[in-house]
């Protein structure tokens, strides 16, 4: 990849040093322009009419995402966010009293709240798999937790507060062998890590557009395996996802678009299409190699700073780099970094309550790297941190 060219095609790279790609990455000029062109046409000619004019380009979304994750286009649904995608698949399953859900300790707050809601509403039981030696979810413990009542294994691929990569492919092998539904939250992995649903063997995979995909906010996608599409109807069925036949009958779609609703952002969808196309052109394996290289450099440099503790676990680590500064205010550190045009975020305990509590962490500073970030930016970042710590 030509990093200089990619940075020149990313307007934000000239304004800030952006280490918040796990929050929302910087969009490219081509992704931005796709949205602007659509919005201008909507303003000038009408939204319905513009959507009709862009019908071919809008259909390309399904092909690009399918290419990215090795799926069929009819297994892809466009959604307004990863949360929407995840919730629509989760509640489509149809839980009953006594059903069991197995999850990992790194489950994100929105997901675990849904588990608790299902526990309160339907009487399901939540089982939390322990961590292995390196911090990833233990495959052995998942297998021990499985019973004849296990309805779903729901795993976070890459946690929001940690650099680790959970062994999603191995979990998929186990779930497939046991005949258990497998839901994968790929919110932080889509766009940085190679995803192959054939190897993952997941039934559902959800992702957002705004993070490592480098797409617009308010966009996401859901993968649903074809066999599963035929088994479940989501709760969101409307005139787009189903056809009203007569007074007492409707017919749901036979593809993953049954998980969509009619209303969505046309400009956002076009923007995410362009962002996904760029990933496919660059090659997701090339992106992953670059992200790992740059993130590894950041971890090494941070670990050499006195007073900094890198908090990432896992034998395989992603572009999410987290650290803490004991006895210092993370809010003040973040504010200091912001004044020097470094974008970071603070991951707090309530976001991943079980994991953070188990590691005695109230918060961590998250510096998430993408392929357009450079070692030079990291040197400046580390120098800024060093100056802050020495000034105290």
From TrEMBL:
<dbReference type="InterPro" id="IPR000192">
    <property type="entry name" value="Aminotrans_V_dom"/>
</dbReference>
<keyword id="KW-0808">Transferase</keyword>
<dbReference type="InterPro" id="IPR015422">
    <property type="entry name" value="PyrdxlP-dep_Trfase_small"/>
</dbReference>
<comment type="similarity">
    <text>Belongs to the class-V pyridoxal-phosphate-dependent aminotransferase family.</text>
</comment>
<dbReference type="InterPro" id="IPR015421">
    <property type="entry name" value="PyrdxlP-dep_Trfase_major"/>
</dbReference>
<dbReference type="Pfam" id="PF00266">
    <property type="entry name" value="Aminotran_5"/>
</dbReference>
<dbReference type="GO" id="GO:0008483">
    <property type="term" value="F:transaminase activity"/>
</dbReference>
<dbReference type="InterPro" id="IPR020578">
    <property type="entry name" value="Aminotrans_V_PyrdxlP_BS"/>
</dbReference>
<protein>
    <submittedName>
        <fullName>Aminotransferase class V-fold PLP-dependent enzyme</fullName>
    </submittedName>
</protein>
<feature type="domain" description="Aminotransferase class V">
    <location>
        <begin position="18"/>
        <end position="381"/>
    </location>
</feature>
<dbReference type="InterPro" id="IPR015424">
    <property type="entry name" value="PyrdxlP-dep_Trfase"/>
</dbReference>
<keyword id="KW-0663">Pyridoxal phosphate</keyword>
<keyword id="KW-0032">Aminotransferase</keyword>
